[in-house]
Amino acid sequence: MDGVLVVTGASRGIGAATALLGAQRGYRVCVNYVRDARAAEAVADAIRRAGGEAIVVQADVGHEAEVARLFATVDRTLGTVTALVNNAGILETQCRIEDVDEERLLRILRVNVVGTFLPSREAVRRMSTRRGGTGGVIVNVSSAASRLGSPGEYVDYAASKGAIDTFTRGLALEVADEGIRVNAVRPGIIETEIHASGGEPGRPARVAPSLPMKRPGRPEEVAEAILWLLSDASSYTTGTIVDVAGGR
Q1: What is the structure's pLDDT at 198?
Q2: CATH label of the domain that carries residue 132
Q3: What is the pLDDT of residue 214?
Q4: How many whole angstroms separate alpha carbon 210 and alpha carbon 206?
């Protein structure tokens, strides 16, 4: 497989696993991050040591100017994007709705929703055959929370991921005849650092007994689903959401 893959929020967790697997499958990879430069460089270094090509670009995908700079850098150094994984996402400390304030809501929506729309816009501008492009694939990282609601913990995060589900379907139909496929994965409880952001690093272990498979998932298991959706093996699949949630 030959192409240029941009993974947002690729310094850790599902994003890092996707960047590494994408490089193994032959992509030239842009590892995007917002704060942890050391972790992002470690991902890129691992790709290079294995013989792949990677760049690291700092950009907050919730801000239009930074997204434009991200894609301009990719154009200049790797070439035109052919695959985009919108993985960047945040959650905040577990709480009920009565404790959610405007600032928290805006932070979550800016990263999780705006931070998916803007990179997708830049990718479509480059990929669309209607605009002279040669096509491409977009995969959005949603969450099982979008259908479960996360009551008492993260209803705001769940709502933001519900927006991603709707956006995935709508964008897929909008660009289906322009050489672009758009799909999403919905991870369940995955062993990543994001749980610490919610104030409970051990949440996967706590929830595991209630899961059908009695264990949390691994980032690499989600990455495999993402790479399938990016590949020609899923060439007739668009507007689809793949649950990677262990039956939950």
Answers
A1: 66
A2: 3.40.50.720
A3: 95
A4: 9
Residue 27's alpha-carbon distances to 178, 193, 229, 246, in angstroms, are 22, 25, 14, 28
Count structural domains, the chain.
Answer: 1
Q: Give the residue carrying structure tokens 């799909």.
A: 183
Q: What backbone phi and psi angles, to 5 degrees, belong to 184? A: -145, 155
CA 180 to chain centroid, in Å, comes to 17
> Among positive and negative, which fits the CA dihedral 155, 160, 162, 163?
positive
Q: Are 207 and 235 a contacting pair, CB within 8 Å?
A: no
DSSP assignment string, 166-200:
HHHHHHHHHHGGGTEEEEEEEE-SB-STHHHHTT-
CA distance linking residue 10 with residue 164, whole number of Å: 18
Pick the closest to residue 115 from 163, 183, 81 (CA basis).
163
Residue listed under structure tokens 């790797």: 78
- Give the catalytic positions in this structure: 157
Question: Which distant-in-sequence residues (6+ apart) come within 8 Å of 239 by Cβ?
Answer: 168, 169, 172, 173, 176, 182, 183
User: What b/e string do you get for 83-114 counting C-beta neighbours within 10 Å, with b at 16 or more?
Assistant: bbbbbbbbbbebbeeeeeeeeeeeebbbbbbb
Average pLDDT per consecutive 10 residues, the chain (248 residues; last block may be shorter): 93 98 98 98 98 98 98 98 98 94 97 98 98 98 97 96 98 98 98 74 87 95 98 98 96
| 221 token code pair | 């298991």
Model pTM? 0.96
Range of the domain at 181: 3-244
Edge-to-edge, what's the strand order for the sheet holding 180-187?
A: 54-58, 27-33, 3-7, 83-86, 136-141, 180-187, 241-244
